[in-house]
Amino acid sequence: MITLYGIPNCGSVKKARDWLESQDIVYEFHDFKKAGIDKDTITGWMKHVSWDVLVNKKGTTWRGLPQATQASVTSAASATRLMMDNPSVIKRPVLCKGKTVLVGFDAGTYEEHLC
Q1: Is 96 a known active-site residue?
Q2: Residue boundaries of the structural domains of the chain
Q3: What's the rounded Cα separation, in Å, for the pair 64 and 30?
Q4: pTM, to two decimals
Q5: What DSSP line would sit under 35-84, residue for residue?
Q6: Burial status of residue 83 (CB atoms within 10 A of its CB: 0-12, 13-18, 19 or more)
Q7: Torsion region of 53: left, alpha or beta (phi above 0 gives left; psi -120 to 50 gives alpha)
Q8: What does CATH list as the number for 2-114?
């Protein structure tokens, strides 16, 4: 089972969904905006990917946070709280298949892990 996490209007998420569909790969889409994200999911991702990869410090959501909030994100625990409170700060998309967790979209990486 493949799950793709993100928001539907994100360009990278759109590219990932288009690529998956062009390869006839079945996946479930989890919309952060509608369904949110829970601690167990984020903790599961962090078994395979560092929290600093998951937190998108280049995005508009991060840049819109108060400096004190940005400065407080120094560990997996604080990053998890931030991602639960502000799912849009998560680098998108996050694709999960078993123990594989891919962050961001790269066609070559997707092909390597999914085909």
Answers
A1: no
A2: 2-114
A3: 24
A4: 0.93
A5: H---HHHHHHHTTTS-HHHHB-TTSHHHHHS-HHHHHH--SHHHHHHHHH
A6: buried
A7: alpha
A8: 3.40.30.10
The predicted-structure confidence for 59-108, as pLDDT tens digits, reads as follows 999 999 999 999 999 999 999 999 999 999 999 999 999 999 999 999 99
Which residues on adjacent β-strands are paired with residue 102?
A: 95
| Collapsed DSSP state (helix, strand, coil) of residue 99 | coil
d(CA 108, CA 7): 22
Selecting among 10, 13, 73, 82, the annotated active-site residue is 10
Q: What is the pLDDT of residues 2-48, one digit of tens each?
A: 999 999 999 999 999 999 999 999 999 999 989 999 999 999 999 99
